[in-house]
Amino acid sequence: MKNIAIFASGSGTNAENIIRYFTASETINIAVVLSNNRKVKVHERVNALGVPSFVFTREEFVAGTPVIDKLAEYKVDFIVLAGFMNKISDALLKAFPGRIINIHPALLPKYGGKGMFGMHVHNAVVAAGEKESGITIHYVNEEYDAGAVIFQASCEVTPQDTPEDVATKVHALEYAHFPRVIEEVVSKI
What we know:
By secondary structure, this protein is an alpha/beta fold. Strands 3-2-1-4-5-6-7 form a seven-stranded mixed β-sheet, with helices on one face. The mean pLDDT is about 95. About 40% of the residues lie in helices and about 25% in strands.
């Protein structure tokens, strides 16, 4: 059994979707959810599904050891970022080399990098008149959104689409593909 930790900073809809996907899995277990924000809804969502969640401070995250210790407590093999808004610390990258993945709400390398998350991405896609957007699932490295791409899926962006319309389409792709891709990647470790 491989144990996964999910890192999240927001409402937790992707975390909830991932947990539900793996509920009956005999090979993958969502062991714990970690967050940098005590007030977000992810805690309520995942706790209702029986998954424990913890909050860490910025100092604990940068230092690495408290977070790594919590991951060790839950025997975590792999980390999934699902709406996590902090750059991963060097300590965490060293502790989990090639075992941290992220989902980005655009077709990288477009609309990636620091500050490009959530509605910022969808606003930029619409403002640029793009004809498509989508998701990119990628490994995490020292730079924002620069790790090797694992999977991409696209959706059409019409001239009539608002940023909210694009967000809805991208969320549908996230829910449809992220758990399956996690399963494929984790089964190889």
